[in-house]
Amino acid sequence: MIRISIDAMGGDHGPAVVIPALMTVATRRPDIRFVIYGREELVRPELAKFPKLAEVSEFFHCEIAVRMDDKPSQALRHGRWKSSMWKAVEAVKSGAADACISAGNTGALMAMSKFCLRTMATIDRPAIAALWPTLRGESVVLDVGATIGADAHQLIDFAILGTGMARSVFGVARPTVGLLNVGVEEIKGQEEVKEAGRMLREANMASMNYHGFVEGDDIGKGTVDVVVTEGFAGNIALKTAEGTARQIAGYLRAAMSRTLMAKIGYVFAKSAFDRLREKMDVGRSNGGVFLGLNGIVVKSHGGADSDGFAAAIELGYDMVRNNLLDRIEADLDLFHARNPHALSSRKSDVVIDAKE
Amino acid sequence: MIRISIDAMGGDHGPAVVIPALMTVATRRPDIRFVIYGREELVRPELAKFPKLAEVSEFFHCEIAVRMDDKPSQALRHGRWKSSMWKAVEAVKSGAADACISAGNTGALMAMSKFCLRTMATIDRPAIAALWPTLRGESVVLDVGATIGADAHQLIDFAILGTGMARSVFGVARPTVGLLNVGVEEIKGQEEVKEAGRMLREANMASMNYHGFVEGDDIGKGTVDVVVTEGFAGNIALKTAEGTARQIAGYLRAAMSRTLMAKIGYVFAKSAFDRLREKMDVGRSNGGVFLGLNGIVVKSHGGADSDGFAAAIELGYDMVRNNLLDRIEADLDLFHARNPHALSSRKSDVVIDAKE
């Protein structure tokens, strides 16, 4: 049995999108149980539509809902201990749930997750990992915006975190891992990236096939299973790809409505276009997975529809089912046992966090 | 009369692509003159096919051609003073040409351009600017890979350089300028970016409409005329966008050949698809413009066809015609006259360069 805690108030649409998604997943995964947090008067009517869902769910009323435009500090001030988002995260900490899913605002969810769950013992900073569609399938890309800048040790943490996720989600025993850089030659790029590359090559880990540097265009090609970068470049890469996809969708719409012939062609090819639109639709992607915390938190896209939110739940389910946290902890222990200097040379920011 | 120096040996195809491009431009711009550098036995036969081009061109034989895979240091060692690439850049320095175009390797061309032309008096580092197709037309994005990292002063330099280019190429009197960041709020992002933002807002320059921060997806939207970032993030954004465009082209091809209906639709819409392919084809983009040097150097895409190389020449032509360098120098002078501390607080790397 896998128990998932749900912040029903997150996202642009709230319970109206979240609850039907739970029903979808409950049908597909009979061993799933939900712990749902949200405002009674909004969630109960939706739940009433799915009696079968009610059988596998517990619901708890929360007075407070974090708003999509709350700053992380505001959200913590108003929503700590009592908002649906906080309660959903806390359920993971207390053991009431194995993973938490929210479509709420990313900064608030990350702030609450860090505060409540804490980073893993040897991890300085959490990362947000995206599942990136590629020509070969999907890749894990991290960090896409949890923090700005990363030293070599933090990049290695991200590599280990991302590898654990790729093993859990793709079922690959030894995922290929690349460090995002401005060239593939070993002499190119930021010092931190070069140092991380040397250390990963030397570490030669059993669970990770270190490929070397990759460039921006390798992400869409699917050159590696895991692309590692710091949060500034990663966030810009992710948003630039989303922007490019939207831009080309715009060109395509314009091209298909320009002439009569094109319009006729569109009618014939409509179902092919619909499939293509699905592939290009960033709103359908699963948002981000928070890695490096003592618990699994999945951030679904704020604008996600029920299918998108269901996909985010199933992603969390798969990671629990495949023991993501145990895998990551085993790999971190193994790496640090062989590289004891790596741990002593880093400065932790956990103490600062606690005072926020 | 505008004189353009041409490295005929650059690019994947060399003179066979370069020389026909010159003919195309010579027809469209009767006041253009070319100074061509390359290997006699390869260039002369191509030139012989276009007697009209020969009338507006001078040709100089160069024994050495920089290879596409030469490292910058190798290229400087073997090619300085004598390669076709060096000679083309040197023609700008000596005044024999107003701008230089090469499809040769970027690192070598930048190394030679820095060595030969030097950076402008108040500029620490040159930038490579890309013309980025957007939903609204085109934007200037810089730096896309000349150097890694940039402090606030260097970001401001890039903003001034990019503004000059946008004014010259788009004919906009006061281009909008955005700093690439991971959020649009003033409190977000790298310290350098935040400081540059404050300084640009305070400077309130007559030639520049400072918009604020922009995110990765704003580039394709065309939110601003000029997007400013340091070279690491800029290069990753550019390559990620190229990769995404290629990825979607792959999806489109697959979608249009999957069913009979889709194939029929494709036949009807073929000309629309051809137009779309042209828009998405990164090989047709003009490569990059080197900014911040005492001379105009345009790097055409290595894989460019004749139309692509012709576009790069016309870009250089337009920048000369519209007094790019004078505009940039006037803006730099104006900025530094009002912000004298900006100049004294920076460290120049010009001396180091001279010893390379």
UniProtKB/TrEMBL annotation, chains A, B:
Pfam families: FA_synthesis. InterPro entries: FA_synthesis (IPR003664), Phospholipid_synth_PlsX-like (IPR012281). It comes from the Bacteria. It catalyses: a fatty acyl-[ACP] + phosphate = an acyl phosphate + holo-[ACP]. Its EC number is 2.3.1.274. It is an enzyme of class 2 (transferase). The keyword rRNA processing does not apply. GO terms for cellular component: cytoplasm. It is found in: Cytoplasm. PANTHER family: FATTY ACID/PHOSPHOLIPID SYNTHESIS PROTEIN PLSX, PHOSPHATE ACYLTRANSFERASE. Homodimer. Probably interacts with PlsY. Catalyzes the reversible formation of acyl-phosphate (acyl-PO(4)) from acyl-[acyl-carrier-protein] (acyl-ACP). This enzyme utilizes acyl-ACP as fatty acyl donor, but not acyl-CoA. Belongs to the PlsX family. This is Phosphate acyltransferase. It comes from Rhizobium loti (Mesorhizobium loti).
